Amino acid sequence: DTNKINYTILLYLSIISVLINAYFLLKFIKSMSLKFGGTISHIGFSLLIIGIIFSAGYSETKTIQLKKDEPKSVFGYKISLIDKIEVEKNLADRQKFVYKLKVESKNSSNIMEPVVYWSDFNERKSPIIEPGIYRATTFDIYSILKSVDIQNTVESIELVKDSVNKVIYDSNCTITLVKFDAHHSKMIDPKTSKMGAIVKYAVNNLEIYDTLYTNLSNSSVYDSYIWKSIPNTNVEISFNRLIPNRENMSKSIAVVSFNKKGEPVIDPIETLTVELIYKPLINFVWIGAIAMFIGLMIPLFRKKKKI
Q: Which of 78, 88, 134, 220 has its CA 20 to 30 A from that of 257?
């Protein structure tokens, strides 16, 4: 089409410009002259144009769906979702997640890290997306999250202080969050830092108190279950995650999951829709920009030397 013809003409002109200016650059170097600043700038500008032409005119875009540890082949690479990490937990104005996508070829293995977060800046009405980038010598691959679908396989509820909730799988038992136990949350070793939730079970006319713990150092969003039996029932419970209320800790939420004793637990199934953009020779844009800057600086260096 017309665009490709224009791209091709501009590409050939840029290559010719590089070759001609490279010829004059060699002549300046051989003559020990420092008057080659303009020549380097022209080469840089031509390389920048070549990078723009290839990255804009010959880029490819593909959309794939990824599930954890199920690789897909794209652009000659195997791409798989290996983890999802919540970061910047200390900042109350946002909730930020980093997805770790493994990019594998026969000779290399790298990680792309696209980011999605919700911020008070836009009242959390829509997520803010930051692309993950895989950089190679002659191309870049950008990964942009388009949507996330989570299919929970374990029954969970959210507990708030003093609310009475029925235990899933046993309607004769209730659970109440009494308070949080933060005695283990400020330990020196972050790997052993834990938050406790003191709960009260009401089962068969008995009130039983217990403490459930979750590991605060585990930033992975994929739940790691620590199962504990609920007395006098055939149900297990796990304190998976704390949703903190930073203004009033007592109003925080404890997310707990239930499972029947002896039954296997299947992790939540998360499906990502990811847009992958292959941009050839995008590095020429940066190389060209740097060369233009160097070319502009050389005349200044010459003037300073004369002074």
A: 88
Can you give 205-241 as a three-state secondary structure string? CEEEEEEEEEECCCCECCCCCCCEECCCCCEEEEEEE
**What is the pTM (predicted TM-score) of this model?**
0.58
The tens place of each residue's pLDDT in the chain, 307 residues long, gives 677 777 788 888 888 998 998 888 888 877 766 677 888 889 999 999 998 888 888 889 999 999 888 899 999 899 999 888 888 877 767 778 899 999 998 888 899 999 988 787 776 677 788 999 998 888 899 999 888 777 767 888 999 999 999 999 998 999 999 999 877 655 444 455 788 899 999 998 899 999 998 876 544 445 567 889 999 999 999 998 888 887 888 889 998 999 999 888 776 678 889 999 999 988 899 899 999 998 888 777 665 555 5
Q: Which of 299, 274, 268, 277 is nearest to 155 (CA)?
A: 268
Residues in the chain: 307
